[in-house]
Each structure stands twice: as C-alpha cells, then as structure tokens.
Amino acid sequence: MTSGDEPNRPRDTDVTETAPLLLASERPRRPSHRTRLSVTSLRSVHVPKIHNGRTIINLLCIIILISSSSSGFVDIPKTRLLEDAACRQYYGLDGTAAGPIDEKHCKVNAIQNKVALTLAIQSSADAAVGFLAAFPWGLAADRIGRKPIAALALTGTLLGTLWTMAVVYFHNTLPVELIWLSSAGNIIGGGSTVIAGIVLSMIADSTTEEERAVAFMRIHVASLCGELGAPALAGAIMARAGPWPPIWIAATATALGAVAFLFVPETLKHHPDQENALETESVGEGEEEEEEATGLKSRVSHVIARFKESLSMLKSTSLILLLLTGLVSPPVLLGTSQFMAQFLSKRYGIELYKTGYVQSTYGAVQVVQALVILPWLTRYVMKSTTPKKIRAPDEHHRDLSLARWSYALLAIGIFVLGLAPTLAGFVFGLVLMALGSGFNSMTRSLMSLYVNPEHRSRLFSLVAMVEVVGSVYAQPLLAALFALGMRLGGGWIGLPYYGLSVLIAFAAALLHFVKVPNEA
To answer: 52-66, 370-384, 456-470: which range is least confident on average?
Structure first.
C-alpha cells in the first residue's frame, strides 16, 4: 500500500499475536457495508481498562464465587433425582408413584453402581468435549480478549445445565442417560476448563510475581466458598422444598456469572513493539497462506499450527513435571464433591441432603487454611529468624516448598478418608486434606515463571487440557473402585480413596525433581 492509498485502511499483514482469531481470513478490501457480525464482535462489549490489579482480583473473586456455586447447588439434587429414577427402575415402579422413594431403599449396590456409572460417563464426556475445545478457545482469548470468551463459556455451561434439568424432569419418558448430551454445551466457549485458564491468565496479567500465589489462592478460596458452601444451602433447601429449587438456583448463578464477566476490565495487554515484530515475521512465507485461508479446513489447520507452537513453550523439564501434577487435580475435586456425597450416603447411611453439610465443613476449613494458615506460612518461611532447614531463599523456592508440603498432607488426609470407620474419622481426614488444599495454587503460580506473559493464556489452556485428561479418567476410576469396594465389603469400601492417595503420592514425588528457573 502506498502513501497515497487510503491511510486508515488496515493492512493484510496486521495479523499479530493479539489480533482476533478470525482476522486472518478477512480481506481489508471488503466494503464496509458488507461487514458481518462474527465472534470478534464480542469485543464491542467495552469496559475501560483498570490497571489496579487488586480491583480486578476482587471482581474475579465475586464472579467466581457466584458461578462456582452452581455446581454446589446442582450436584446433590441431581444425584438424588438420578438415584430415585434408578430406584424406580430397580423395583419396577412406574413414574406415577406419588413422591420420591425413601432413600433407605435405594442404597443397594446395584442402584448405587448405576448412579455412579451414569455420573462417571457424564463426567468423562464433559472432560472429552472440554479437551477438544480448550485450546481453540484459549487461543481466541489471547486474540479477542479474556472476558468475552469467559462469558461465552459460562453460557455454554448454562445450556448444558438446562438440558440436564429437562432430561431429569422427564425421566419417565426419556432415558436418564441422555444427560450425557449436556456435555455438548462445552463446545460453546470451552466450558469450565477454558474459564479456569482465562481466570488464571487474568490474575497473572494483573499481579506481580510476589503477589501471584496469594492472588491464585484468593480465587481458589472464592471457588471453594461457592463449590463447598453451596451444598449446605442446597441440603437445607432440599430438606424443605425438594431437589428442584437448588437446581434452579444453580442455573441462575451460572447466568449471573456470564453477565458479570462482561463488566470485568480486559487484562489482555497489547504490546506494539512485539506486535510489529511478529507482523514483520509473518510477512514472509506465511502471509499468502493466511490471506488465502478460508473455510473450516484452513481454520482447523491454523489452530493446530498454533497448538504446536504453544507446545514449544514446554522446553523446561520442571514445567512438564508441574503440568503432569495437573492430572491428579480432577480426582481430588471429584473425591470431595459429587462422588463424596454418594460415598457418604452409602457408607454411613445418611441422607444425601445431609452430605452437603460435610462438604461445607471441608470448605470452611479450607477457607481458614487459605486466609490464615497459608499467609502466615508464606511469611514465616521467608523470615531471617526461621530455621535454615525450612527457610526459603526467595518467593519461588518458597512456593515450591509449600507445594511439596501440601501434596504430602493431601495424600495422608485422603488415605484417612478411606480408612475412617465413622463419620467423625472421615471429617478428620477432610481437615488434613484442607491443610494441603493450596497444592493447586502453588503449582500454577510456579508454572507462570517459565513462559512469557503474552503466552500465559496458552499455558493455562494447556494446564486446563491436562486437567481435562485427568477428568476423563477420574470419575470412572472412582466409580470402578467404588463398585469393587462394595463387592469386597468391609473396609474395602474405602478403596476409591486408597487409590486416590496413591496418585497424590506419585505427584508429590514428581515435585522433588522440579527446579525453579534461575531468572524468573
């Protein structure tokens, strides 16, 4: 383009790291009256950038608290409705029978196996769809912006919840297995895996290295308050009004979270110097291909190329080891949420709605650990008066040490869950687990040290994809061990937690080979 041409018309080479995902296939010669609405139009939802990281973190905490509570509200009621449907089928009762069947008649092994298997397949389907969608939408977040993609992901989650509600409501005519199709909602925005990656990226964008681990923990606490505080409220509501009101509350919370994300300041940073450098590099061999790329095939190829490019970030053995620890995060989460509700009800003979109180107790201890114990430890291990054996030379070595301690406590606590013959013993195991609940925040904070800031969304998308792989096997593994434990009888019913403890111990061993970068 010469200086005499239209000066305000964008050039074909203006395709940079932070440009919209679909911009490469648009031709600037297209007349303005033919401009079409696309995914990039989500950027029109504009809120001025706020450079106060504390403000952004506070807003994210509120949104995560609201949106994460949806799973806490929906899991126990959904489990109860599925159990009732399986119970009717087992006893040959039709759907016209008045009211739900008494829970005490639904604890036979065959019914519990069916419920566990149904939930396991749904969890795996959610994970598989999330795995396929995580990277493309993570790439879109790096180009379009963080907040519109997060809002879109919550919208897809809401659609999946509504489908589940419809199938369970019409279980007399629809097979309950159709709830597996709710996973298709993750195609829109990528679901929880993408949301997690985006939130982590927004935190990394808005904080310094010294503040990052604490900020991750604050988000973690907000998520816990939603996920583990909501079950107690859901249980109280179920005791008085049945399982449906909590499910409607869950749908409403998800919708509010999607809308609220649009009002968070965008944290995606555009660096003109880096963009110009990337632009110059792209003028050569790739310019003609990008300009001529049209249709689904070319866009899929573009995403695959970007995925391969992102894998090039994994140059550090320590980063790879940290990523591998993400494989054990989903089983831990499932073992303290939906699966735990079914396990408690079966092993200790309590009603499902009462299990929400146990979950919330675990959440309360985690909040104390995150807001009181962990901040004290982070300061204590850095003091010059601290014994040399446990004193950390800097923030990065401190985070690594705390991560190792957290995994050790987690493994011990989970093993106690399997052994506990009484509910009180089980709660004691949960307390030990809660003391090690900072494991995820610590490892994610360490991961951000190994990549450039502009690539963090891709890194955390990879983290989300690794965790999705963990989600694929997590629920089926717990369900299979649960079925085997019930068949063996006695103390073997704790087999799911024995197996989970072994996984955590393996992850803890990996951390002893991690080394922080010399220059972070």
So the answer is: 456-470
The percent of the chain in helix, strand and coil, each rounded to the nearest 5, is 75, 0, 25
CB-CB neighbours of 240 under 10 Å: 8
Q: CA-to-CA distance for 465 and 196, rounded, in angstroms?
A: 11
State the pLDDT at residue 444. Answer: 82
Please give the model's pTM, rounded to 2 decimal places.
0.66
User: Which run of H or of E encompasses 27?
Assistant: none
For residue 205, give the nearest of 397, 434, 480, 18 by alpha carbon: 18
Q: Are 265 and 49 in contact (CB under 8 A)?
A: yes
Please determine, for residue 27, whether its predicted confidence score (pLDDT) is greater than 70. Answer: no
Q: Using one digit for the tens of pLDDT, what is the confidence trace for 114-149?
A: 888 888 888 888 888 877 887 788 778 877 878 888
Using CA atoms, how far apart are residues 86 and 109, in angstroms rounded to an integer? 12
Q: Are 503 and 328 in contact (CB under 8 A)?
A: yes
CATH superfamily of 49-270+314-511: MFS general substrate transporter like domains (1.20.1250.20)
Nearest to 49, CA basis, from 276, 263, 274: 263
